[in-house]
Amino acid sequence: MSTKPEYHQHEEFQNRIRKLEEIRELGIEPYPHHYTPTHTSEELNNRYHDKPIGHSDDAAAGVTEFVKMAGRLMLFRSMGKNAFAHIQDDTGRIQIMFNRDITKVAGYSPPHDNDSEGLTPLKLIEKKFDLGDIIGIEGHVFRTNKGELTIFAKTVTLLSKTLLPLADKHSGLADKELRYRKRWLDLISNEDIRKTFRARSQIIKLIRDYLHGQNFLEVETPVLQSIYGGAEARPFITKLNALEQEMFMRISLEIPLKKLIIGGMNRVFEIGRVFRNEGIDRTHNPEFTMLELYAAYWDYNDMMHLTENLFQHCALAIHGTTKVAVRNPVNEEIVEVDLKAPWKRMSMKECIQVYGNIDPDKLSDQEIRKILLNSGHVDPKKVQGLSRGLLIAALFEVTAEPHLIQPHHVIDHPIETTVLCKQHRDPAKKAEGLIERFESFILGKEICNAYTELNDPELQRTLLEGQAKRREAGDEEASPFDEEFIEAMCQGMPPTGGLGIGIDRMVMILLNAHSIRDVLYFPWMKPIGAAKEESAS
Fold first, then answer.
1. What does R_g of the chain's alpha carbons equal in angstroms?
2. Dihedral (C-alpha) 343, 345, 348, 350: value to the nearest 10 degrees?
3. I need a surface site. Which of 94, 198, 269, 290 has the fewest CB within 10 A?
4. What does the pLDDT look like over 378-405, one tens digit per residue?
5. What is d(CA 97, CA 111) in angstroms, rounded to the nearest whole number?
6. Spatial separation of the C-alpha atoms in residues 328 and 326, rounded to whole Å
7. Which H/E stretch holds residue 149?
8. Do the Cβ atoms of 133 and 72 come closer than 8 Å?
9. Of 300, 293, 290, whose CA–CA distance to 267 is shortest?
């Protein structure tokens, strides 16, 4: 049997439990099954924004428009014969006026002699209802002498009696940890965060609509996989009891989507959760939303065009401009990022030369290792075993990446950085060990990854076997060998371009969110006990 939580002992909880019992004794059902609002606060405020409507006498007489609304009681003040309140629905707030002689409470029949407590409907609302309660309002709209749009409440229905108080905006919700951990409190109290998540939903819809307009087909692929791949990351491991089989949460959408390309579905995309058992910081969460898309007969140049045009499309739809004011994570200053296409294109080595003031071609491997170790941003154990290509990629991350504030496509990566990308078509670049890959950066952070996809099954086999050997040697981020994927490729995969965009990071940029936790409904948080111990230490 579970023990009762600490809040059960709080005085406020006990008071509300008592009120709940008293409300039931009065014949009121505090948790009814159904209610049908006819309007939202936003609809009413928009409709009567600049229109005459009438005064309280007109509303009392039923001359003005009748409305039925539902929302959370956020403010209440009694003024003798009348009382005023604000209720909040999912679109905003609106003022309510209760009247001692006219307002009724659904389910309540007041005594004729106004006995002991003298519980008129207005007194019942004042004494038994609490801030945070969800109520329904039926009445007529009017405008007060001060010009505020108001509903004259004829009937009030209790829809949900709350047993815990709202968070104190000036203390409880100043704690970001609490806001992230108890997102429902944040949403109730913080209009800005409600706007953020409505905008997030709008951005995802814009992405879908844009891709549908480009003749992409949205598909769904398995979240549980017997073999994981498509990225270098540690997976979450689970078990399929019915088959007594170890399973993995997907770390990428890539392999199943490529199988659909092989099957003749020439343009496909998926927006879905992926899971990587790795670090948590300002731009990383163990589960996050990924957009991956693949187009037959495209290459990485086509994917660069699509990426910048998609960001431009979303920025224009959300802000009416491609210029977005965002906080620079390096110095916390507000900068204006212009998402207008085309974006600057630079090779990885060019970025190192321009932003890091280093020519990697003039450095030996040991000299690069020394720069990396002196930076303090790399694991000394890992640096020693890196190949030339991976050393250059690490040098880029340390010296150039933080300077890529405006949008950049960083192209032509070393072949060691991925096993799924096609070698460069330019013979000189191919000889140099470069592949047709790009990553796009904004505010010094990667926001997408794309390739001209490798479609030679024998070369793919060789590269995946090499990756599997690294896994056997102890590299936890290397994926196991996937024979079924190679078999599918042997059926013939057309020339293909592929792209992956982290939706959460995209939303962060478009909405100027400082942390990924600000754009995830339920970001991963340490257990409360562990968080307290870490804070104390």
1. 30
2. -120
3. 198
4. 888 888 888 999 999 999 999 999 999 9
5. 23
6. 6
7. strand 149-160
8. yes
9. 293
Q: What distance in Å separates the CA atoms of residue 37 and residue 499, rounded to the nearest whole number?
A: 43
Q: Are 211 and 268 in contact (CB under 8 A)?
A: no
Q: What is the DSSP string of 189-209?
A: H-HHHHHHHHHHHHHHHHHHH
Find the angle CA(347)-CA(294)-CA(247) to the nearest 5 degrees: 105
Q: Are 302 and 287 in contact (CB under 8 A)?
A: no
> Across the chain, which distance is largest between two alpha carbons, in Å?
98
- How many CA atoms, within 13 angstroms, populate the side-chain half-sphere of residue 206? 21
Sign of the Cα torsion 322, 518, 93, 157 reads positive
Distance (Å, rounded) from C-alpha 175 to C-alpha 407?
33
Q: What is the pLDDT of residue 529?
A: 63
DSSP 3-state of 406: coil
Token pair for 101: 């002689």
Q: What is the pLDDT of residue 31?
A: 98
- 442: enclosing H helix or E strand: strand 434-442
> How many other C-beta atoms can be found within 10 angstroms of the C-beta atom of residue 521?
12
Q: Which residues of the chain have pLDDT under 70?
A: 1-2, 112-118, 169-174, 529-537
Strands 287-296 and 323-327: unpaired
Q: Which helix (H) or strand (E) holds 83?
A: strand 82-89
CA 263 to chain centre: 32
* Chain centre to alpha carbon of residue 74: 27
Query: Does 37 sit behind a cis peptide bond, omega within 30 degrees of 0 on the bond before it?
Result: no
Count of CB atoms within 10 A of residue 507's CB? 25
Give the three-state DSSP class for 109. coil
What are 217's two structure tokens? Answer: 């087909």
Name which of 531, 522, 534, 537 is nearest 181 in CA terms. Answer: 522
What pLDDT is attached to residue 370? Answer: 92
